[in-house]
Amino acid sequence: MNTRPAVTAPTHPPLVRSFHGQTLVDPHAWLRADNWREVMRDPSVLDADIRAFLEAENAAADAWLAPHADLRRTLVKEMRARIKEDDASVPATDGPYAYFTRFREGGQHPLICRRPAGAVAGETILLDGDALAEGKAYFQFGDAQQSPDHALYAWTADEAGSEYYTLRIRDIAAGTDLPDVVTETTGDVLWSADGRHIYYIRRDAEHRPSFVYRHLLGSDPANDVLIYEEPDKGFFVSLGRTQSGRFGLISCGDHDTSEVWLLDLHAPLAPPVRVEPREPGLRYGVEHHPSLGGVESLIIETNADEAEDFKIVTAPLASPGRASWRDLVPHKPGRLLLSQSAFRDHLVRLEREDGLPRIVVRALKDGSEHVVAFAEEAYALGFDPGYGFDKTEIRFTYSSMTTPSEVWDYDVESRARVLRKRQEVPSGHDPARYVTRRLMAPAPDGELIPVSLLFARETPLDGTAPCLLYGYGAYGISIPASFSTSRLSLVDRGFVYAIAHIRGGTEKGWRWYREGKLAKKTNSFTDFIAAGEHLVAEKIVAPDRIVAHGGSAGGMLMGAVANMRPELFAGIVAEVPFVDVLNTMLDDTLPLTPPEWPEWGNPITDAEAFATIRAYSPYDNVAAKDYPAIFALAGLTDPRVTYWEPAKWVTRLREMKTDSRPLLLRTNMEAGHGGAAGRFDRLEETAMVYAFALAMAGAATGL
């Protein structure tokens, strides 16, 4: 049933523009609210015609989903039963206190807490997320940091889903917030060493993080001092801190170039100092060591000197520029350096080679190294440096598609591991019931595409199994083969869950990313199609029971493969899909457009980029042909993929497609890019997606 909305869209004149001698006609441009900036702050000011259109689409989607209400309730019930409702994180010690988060039974939002270091009692609730979210349609914590003397707690929260965060400062002893309130920040928080100043970032008129301010506690935020303004509209700004605690970091960059400024946290009135001027294509990140070889130094990971997969260099703090950089960890092609943290006696880095992550510990006194790695065929590994510089203990998290998440403390000198937490699945989980594998699917140009699989041991791999095939493939983001309790609801119903690690990510090094961007973007699409075809050819999944799934840039992937190979998929789920690529990249007033040009190309100034994007942009390539069933999800206050992209795409699909398969659009009118904020509310959205996938793969009766 191709459910259509009950309300017909009003008639508006098309938007007609010319670029590079080509005429673009956009009949659905009216769905872009002229006051979109105000809508981000206050969804109630949305144009009445647009609201009526979105609500009609929601009603139509709800009508289609209604017969699957029992299935959705069952899915939510079993997914919730796998969540430890009163779960808590492993405390992280910072001086006299250990900080952690926990949930109360039935609670949607975290409680941020602390207790005396080394104690198991004496908890203080610093922030109660459930209480703070009471009565609000949306609530999401951002950054939160304790002051150096542990008397205050700076915290941020987004109350619309638009990624405008309000900064507040909690007096821990009093349990109340100070009068200092800063609105519309990015959520980043950084304390000066004396605990009297806070650094934060504001966005510009186009929602881009651009301005770094310094706030003096007790003063009027209107008098806060602007200490950095980003001159390039294509650069975003973020705040960080070195592990030593000496410097704050103002990191500026796009997807191709970066620049870092040092903030001396012990001299908060001093201006920031640039490490190395920006240079197109040069990327670097900074750590600090007070006495490396007897010299106060910076430790820098960089792609300088054609080190595509990055290397680590050192430089004296007194002369931090590139002319002083000396190799510490040389470049090795195919070994991608992901992050590093510097401690007094050790340098710890996270890297990935042959698609698998590992932690490498380097002794600074003699350069000797050892590796923390694992034997599973596919797994996810994360590294948390925690607080402190003089310590020898680090923390890492490990999981695989069959193994629940584990938190380990690791002593880098003794190499002793202590398991601090293993994820509990209250309803039960037996890893032996499941199988994880990694396949290599041949792409049309001969590249081999890694594909991670999860399936139940009893699932027959005879070409009859349904499949959910997930993909992303952009920005160099690698999709980890990690554990998820939710996806077991599909796997337990006979699905093969597959992740296609396509080009555009960095699973096989920086080259893998470079080969999936700009003029080579279509490699991402053909890789995903090749992964699906390989699963069919190997008789792992059924040729008519594959449901594709992707979100954001992965949603663009969904739109592209729907145009290119619609017959390969029984259904497509596109969450907050970036599908109106050409029009968005032509609109430099949108938050992400200038920073995205290094990823997709600038079609305003570059005729070749215009032609390339126009040739694959999903919205611009919808054709009069049969399409698979499609479920698109959007967020009204989403600043990353604006709501009108999926709305326009679905409208054009309705006009053009020649089949009667379901075409659904559901917009969360009270959320942004991440969907619902509450942990149980998110299950409702997941259940909608899974019910659609089960129905399209012919497995919806398997309750």
Automatic annotation (TrEMBL):
Protein name as it appears in the record: S9 family peptidase
Superkingdom, natural source: Bacteria
Segments forming domain Peptidase S9A N-terminal: 12-421
Keywords recorded for this protein, A-Z: Hydrolase, Protease, Serine protease
Keyword Hydrolase recorded: yes
Higher taxonomy: Bacteria, Pseudomonadati, Pseudomonadota, Alphaproteobacteria, Hyphomicrobiales
Keyword check for Disulfide bond: no
Residues of the Peptidase S9 prolyl oligopeptidase catalytic domain: 482-698
PROSITE patterns: PRO_ENDOPEP_SER (PS00708)
Protein family (similarity comment): Belongs to the peptidase S9A family.
